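worker-3 :: picked SBP-type domain-containing protein
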Amino acid sequence: MTHQYGWEVEDCTADMKDAKPYHRRHRVCEHHSKASIVLVAGMRQRFCQQCSRFHDLSEFDEAKRSCRRRLAGHNERRRKSSNDYHGEGEMGAGSGVQWWKGASGKEREAFRRRVWGYFHG
Ligand SMILES: [Zn+2]
Ligand SMILES: [Zn+2]
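worker-3 :: tokens ->
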């Protein structure tokens, strides 16, 4: 069964209408947020309590509920290759290029204007 909010979690029978706000917000039912292995789109994953999303099982140490990257320390964030970190609204130097690649024409235009205003306004 598919979670109404987008996660393809197999065998999920939860009714998200009754879910707690936390689980609703992170689009996972309580059961699956605690399961050590969840099949998501056919892959074995686990819900990361730090990132509030599913990662591949290989990103976790044994029975940990937070991925290795988060446990390794938050100050590592800037240096890493930002392949799968799409932080909400983060426009720091490290992720700028990633963001630019994924931005729509409209977003790029708005960004150009802002930069232009910064230098010329
Ligand atoms: Zn579920
Ligand atoms: Zn994580």
